[in-house]
Structures are given as structure tokens and as C-alpha cells.
Amino acid sequence: MQRKIMDKISASTNPVILQSEGLLKYILETSVYPREAETLKELRNATANHPLGFMGTSPDAGQLMALLLKLLNAKKTIEVGVFTGYSLLLTALSIPYNGKITAVDPDRKAYEIGLPFIKKAGVLHKIDYIESPALPVLDKLLDDPANEGTFDFAFVDADKNNYWNYHERLIKLVKISGIVAYDNTLWGGTVALPEMVVSETKREWRRCTLDFNEAISKDPRMELAFVSIGDGLTICRRIC
Hints:
Number of helices: 9
Order of helices and strands: HHHHEHEHEHEHEHEE
Low-confidence stretches: 1-14
Number of strands: 7
Mean pLDDT: 92
CATH superfamily: Vaccinia Virus protein VP39
Strand order of the largest sheet: 3-2-1-4-5-7-6
Helix content: 40-55%
Radius of gyration: 18 Å
Largest sheet: 7 strands, mixed
CATH topology: Rossmann fold
Shape: globular
CATH class: Alpha Beta
CATH architecture: 3-Layer(aba) Sandwich
């Protein structure tokens, strides 16, 4: 019994949902890194030097997002939580020349790490970066009814305690058949562990993630897929 608990503790500290570094390495080296744009690779390497570099979007999850954006033929997107901008740059590279991204994050310093790579890629004109907490920005967008149902795609990688608050707003902003994707919905695999074996630093947002996952699984306004990629990616398609 003690061995099983220790195995769970080990799992809770391993950010690889697959629980196999070798398998993840195989996936990345076989199909992700060879197709990763050079500017994305450079930004990923620059982010790795940041003390919070683990917060960046995983490149395998990013590859899936890029595919979704192209399948949707997305032109108007919104991003809640930018950090250094890996997912932002990926989105900008995946949408048309005249596409637009509303990107919201209060930490401009982190965003500026990625800014040189965004400029180098020639996609800065697609990005409207707003230095602010997200809820006031989303509420301001909803103050104008003309904004409802106009976004093709939304991506959320921000404070987990506000995921449901973001969801209630984004579901109105995204068009019917549009997609909202939420990152970190497996929270390092801790959602499947007893709280007693999860580190204190992860417990609060683990509880928030559990509550969000339960609530969104019952939301009749959308279809969803819960994907065990990166740190967990929940993909929601608005149906009403």
C-alpha cells in the first residue's frame, strides 16, 4: 500500500501526463519538432530559461491547436493568458494574413520575451495585446452585443480559479460551431490522485480544476473532448 502511495506521489510531480518520458520524447521528435516553425522553436528555447518556463504551452498541444485552427478556418480568435506567447505566435502563424487575435494577460514583461519572435515571424499586425486581467476585458466585449458569437476560436491558459468565469463569457463570444480550448485540465495528473498525496502548492488549483472539469462535463451548450496531451487539453465546441 505504501509503495502505491509513493508511486502516486511520484506521478503527481511528473508533468508528463503519459507518465513516460521516453514515449513523449518519441512523439515530439517524430512528429512535433520536425514540423515546428523556426520562430516557435526559438521562442520555446527562450521560454525554457524563464523561472516559470514550465507554464508555456507544450509543443504537442500546440500542434493540435494549430490543426484545429486550420480546420475551422479561424480568422478571429481570443486568448486568455499569454505568458511568453508560444500559443499566441502559433495561433498567429495558423490564421490568415487578415486574421485577428485579442490576447489578454496582465504580465507584459513575460509577453515581451516572445515579442521579438512574433515580430520576426511577421505576424505582429494580427495581434491586439491587452495588458489586463481577463474578466474586465471579456465583460467589456460583451457590453457590445455585436461582439457576441463573432469569435471562431478561444484558448484559455490562465488562473484556474477563474476558468468557469471565463467559460461563461467565452461561450457567448464564440460562434456556434466555434471552439474554446482550456489548458492544464489534468493539472499534472493530480486530478486523479487523493488530495493527501498532492503537494500543498498544487492543492488549491487542483480543487478548482476538479470543479471546472465536473461543471463543464455537464454543460449542454457544447460538445467536448478531454484530451490527455500536454497537461490536459479540454476542447469544447459550442452547439447552441
